[in-house]
């Protein structure tokens, strides 16, 4: 135990030191002003753009959340995550080039600014900014929760160690975001993305070797089939699969940190390389996480590793790391913290940009940047406090955030298709869908899993999209009739 703790802390310290060097080095690329602080003045290389997009998207959700989801619910978790990957690649391939061009020509910095500019209304930017600020707290909190769970598993599982893990993550997010804005975030993202992928490969190699030497792969198939989780388990009913998947496949369109990264590549070749690099990273990382979860379930059922109750699925990776080789577990422990930090600081920087550009648009540029700096610290602290409350599973928190962002999808799609709608219907479209989600969260007895609700077998996600889409469409029709 002492050896594991010493090694874990040593690797963590090494990661922090290297990350700090990279973050400080990144200041050489930083130019004065908001455009460079938030979107690098649209000059990221293809490799850096790919790694920051991938590492921003694939967070503690994967090696903690998705591993646990696969362990608890079976191979349906693979379909859920691959649906996201395929949908994201389609969205990026179809829409990213035109969004990239318009961001440059129109000078977009924040994602909310994109919508306010397209619909010619500053009020839309304010509304979208508020939706982001409320919705993304759970998603940022789940990153902190992932750090807390892993750190707690390393040093003994106490509530104090969980709190220390959250505090550590929060400090890294604040410092690495403030040092050089998107430059320190993107370059540390690149470092952390490589750490994530390398350590993921080591993680799956170890668990495959353990499986081969104990129960064998025939045993895995037999055990998982017997437990009913090799195919679509009872958990993955059609409405549950749709409830998880529908919000997730629109991630690239409605999450500000994902939208903002489309602006940043320096040319069309870099944008294409970003998409290709993300595709490769995403496929490998998804297969690694799901395979680990399935093999862990077979090993636990065979008593090769300790049994973890599926109801405590976020503890699967921490328990596995507690019995792995200390060096390997320390590396994986560090990679998961890296995954959580890279997503959290990307979200926080995006939230700072909407605070600065969309809520503080009446301020002078210098004061807007100060507002952004303050926002970085404030949102990080709020997210850390929510994480401390341990309000739900990591995957559920991720889907909840995405459901809360769903009302933005119709307005964003219309923007990307260059379809104009009147400002009033755009605002009503967003507010009506968002109030529907908030109302359900307030009255539902399990608010974190409100996305599982159905109305006459129709998932609530579809209803939210219909409400927002119909209101937006009515505005377009009325405007055409007037003209």
Q: What topology does this entry show?
A:
Layout: H1 2-25, H2 34-39, H3 46-57, H4 60-73, H5 76-106, H6 111-118, H7 122-155, H8 159-180, H9 182-214, H10 216-226, H11 238-249, H12 251-254, H13 256-263, H14 268-301, H15 316-323, H16 326-359, H17 365-388, H18 394-405, H19 409-416, H20 423-443, E1 454-455, E2 458-459, H21 460-482
Helix pairs in contact: 1-8, 1-9, 1-16, 3-9, 3-14, 3-16, 4-5, 4-7, 4-14, 4-16, 5-11, 5-14, 6-7, 7-8, 7-15, 7-16, 7-17, 7-18, 7-20, 8-9, 8-16, 8-17, 9-14, 9-16, 10-14, 11-18, 15-16, 16-17, 20-21
Task: Please provide a brief summary of the model.
It is built from 21 helices and two strands.
Explain what you see.
This protein is an all-alpha fold and 483 residues long. Helices cover 79% and strands 1% of the residues. It contains 21 helices and two strands. The chain has a two-stranded antiparallel ribbon with strand order 1-2. The model has no long low-confidence stretch (mean pLDDT 90).
Tags for this entry?
single chain, about 475 residues, mainly alpha, two-stranded antiparallel ribbon, 2 strands, globular
The SSE order reads HHHHHHHHHHHHHHHHHHHHEEH
Strand content: under 5%
Structural class category? mainly alpha
So how many helices? Answer: 21
Helix content: over 70%
């Amino acid at each position: 135990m002492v050896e594991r703790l010493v090694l874990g802390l040593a690797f963590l310290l090494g990661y922090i030191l290297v990350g700090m060097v990279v973050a400080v080095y990144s200041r050489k690329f930083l130019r004065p002003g908001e455009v460079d602080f938030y979107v690098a003045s649209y000059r990221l290389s293809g490799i850096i753009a790919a790694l920051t997009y991938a590492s921003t998207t694939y967070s503690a959700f994967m090696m903690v959340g998705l591993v646990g989801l696969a362990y608890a619910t079976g191979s349906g978790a693979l379909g859920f995550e691959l649906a996201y990957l395929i949908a994201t690649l389609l969205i990026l391939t179809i829409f990213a080039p035109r969004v990239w061009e318009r961001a440059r020509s129109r000078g977009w910095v924040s994602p909310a600014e994109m919508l306010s500019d397209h619909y010619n209304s500053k009020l839309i930017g304010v509304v979208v900014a508020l939706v982001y600020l409320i919705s993304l707290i759970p998603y940022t909190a789940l990153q902190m929760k992932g750090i807390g769970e892993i750190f707690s598993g390393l040093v003994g599982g106490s509530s104090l160690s969980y709190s220390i893990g959250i505090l550590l993550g929060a400090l890294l997010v604040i410092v690495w975001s403030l040092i050089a804005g998107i430059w320190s975030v993107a370059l540390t993202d690149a470092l952390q993305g490589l750490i994530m992928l390398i350590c993921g490969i080591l993680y799956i190699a170890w668990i495959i070797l353990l499986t081969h030497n104990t129960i064998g792969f025939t045993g895995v198939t037999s055990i998982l089939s017997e437990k009913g989780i090799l195919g679509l388990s009872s958990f993955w009913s059609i409405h549950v699969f749709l409830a998880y998947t529908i919000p997730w496949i629109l991630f690239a369109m409605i999450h500000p940190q994902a939208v903002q990264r489309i602006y940043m590549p320096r040319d069309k070749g870099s944008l294409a390389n970003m998409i290709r690099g993300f595709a490769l990273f995403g496929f490998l990382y998804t297969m690694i996480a799901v395979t680990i979860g399935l093999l862990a379930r077979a090993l636990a059922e065979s008593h090769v590793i300790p049994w973890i109750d599926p109801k405590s699925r976020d503890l699967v990776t921490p328990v596995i790391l507690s019995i792995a080789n200390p060096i390997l577990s320390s590396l994986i422990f560090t990679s998961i913290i890296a995954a959580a930090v890279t997503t959290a600081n990307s979200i926080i920087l995006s939230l700072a940009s909407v605070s600065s550009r969309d809520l503080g648009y009446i301020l002078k540029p210098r004061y807007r940047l100060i507002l952004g700096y303050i926002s970085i610290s404030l949102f990080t602290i709020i997210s850390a406090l929510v994480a401390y409350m341990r309000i739900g599973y990591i995957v559920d928190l991720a889907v909840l955030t995405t459901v809360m962002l769903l009302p933005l999808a119709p307005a964003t799609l219309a923007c990307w298709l260059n379809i104009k709608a009147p400002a009033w219907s755009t605002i009503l479209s967003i507010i009506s869908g968002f109030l529907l989600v908030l109302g359900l969260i307030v009255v539902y007895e399990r608010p974190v899993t409100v996305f599982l609700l159905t109305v006459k077998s129709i998932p609530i996600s579809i209803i939210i999209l219909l409400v927002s889409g119909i209101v937006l469409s009515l505005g377009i029709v009325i405007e055409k009739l007037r003209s």
